[in-house]
Amino acid sequence: MNGFAFKGWCPSALRPMPSGDGLVVRLRQRGGRLSSAQAAGIAELSARHGNGLIDLTGRANLQIRGVSEQSHGPLIEGLDRLGLVEAELSESQRNILIAPFWTPGDDASSLAAELEQALAKRSLGLPEKFGFAIDCGSERVLAQTPADIRIERCIDGGLVVRADGASHGRKVAREEAIDAVHALVEWFVASGGTRGRRGRMAAHVAVVGPPDNLAGDTQPAPALAPPKPGFVVAGGLVGFAFGLLSGETLGYLAGLSPGLRLTPWRMVLVEGLREMPQHDDLVTDADDPLLRVTACTGAPSCPEAHAETRQLAAVLAPHIAADAHLHVSGCAKGCAHPTAAGLTLVGTSDGFDLVRHGTARDVPAMRGLARVKILADPGTWLGGR
What we know:
Elements: E1 17-19, E2 22-27, E3 33-35, H1 36-49, E4 53-56, E5 62-67, H2 69-81, H3 88-93, E6 96-98, H4 107-119, E7 132-135, E8 149-153, E9 159-163, E10 170-172, H5 177-190, H6 201-208, H7 212-215, E11 230-232, E12 235-239, E13 244-246, H8 247-254, E14 259-262, E15 267-271, E16 293-295, H9 310-316, E17 326-329, E18 341-348, E19 351-358, E20 366-369, H10 371-376, H11 378-382
Parallel strand pairs: 6-7, 7-8, 16-17, 17-18
Antiparallel strand pairs: 1-2, 2-5, 3-14, 4-5, 4-13, 8-9, 9-10, 11-12, 12-15, 14-15, 18-19, 19-20
């Protein structure tokens, strides 16, 4: 059996989630960015009040790990001094992803600020995992990142507001965008979108179809594959194996830049970076095999996991083809990679199940593979046959 519990909510600063290594405290920074002072402060607090380990999540948030019941209060006081704690309503609803390649004062940064303010005003009755994406570049970079309502650029350079799961969206003027988002939220709630177990837009649209008066007929701009480590206009992208970094590493990066932009690809955009840093915890080579694998926290840090995941994924990484991707999940929730992967190993009480071209919840091609068997001959099991 592969039983697990859907908690239906994500941790926050004020409402941490218990895990195998203590409480997990998630930070939702404004505009997807931390100042160097905020990043340095988080680094220091993670060592003082946690176990010094920090997750960079697929929603572009940081999570401080290993916090105790006794240290949670002092941690919150420290985070509050850094401007990183808000009222619970604001925190729980402000699930906003912003593509990190914005420039100050452009549509993306201003829309993110306006949407943050709008979401803080009142309860919308949305599921806590419901999220928004602002992806306003000439080409979309968040298309493969889960979100429920998207503000995107369309082919002619205008803006489109789109319900996830719908191929087209409603073209809007800049000043109409936030109102169009609210209209989609109200439709989702009124049409029963919150009554499903997961409460996500794409699943709802698949059942009831997009709203006739809000769907629109405008196609968004082309989508790009997720980027890799390297230089971009705003600075440099550096990655972390499995999105895990130490407080010491975060503090090191804070000293290189005026600000850090967090991404959903388990990378950080270090503003103004012009030379790749040399640090053991960083992934800076675009061809690094570790970029071909994803793994959740796994056992023993996650109580839902049936197996250790990250060490296994690291050992298997060199055996994964350059154009393939392996997801190693401790259970069938698939938290680290909720979308389909070419190969997925799912920990169960009977070993690992292998899913090809699917998610951790899909029907496996093989069941009950022993860890030692996989490691003895990775090519046989992961060779794509």
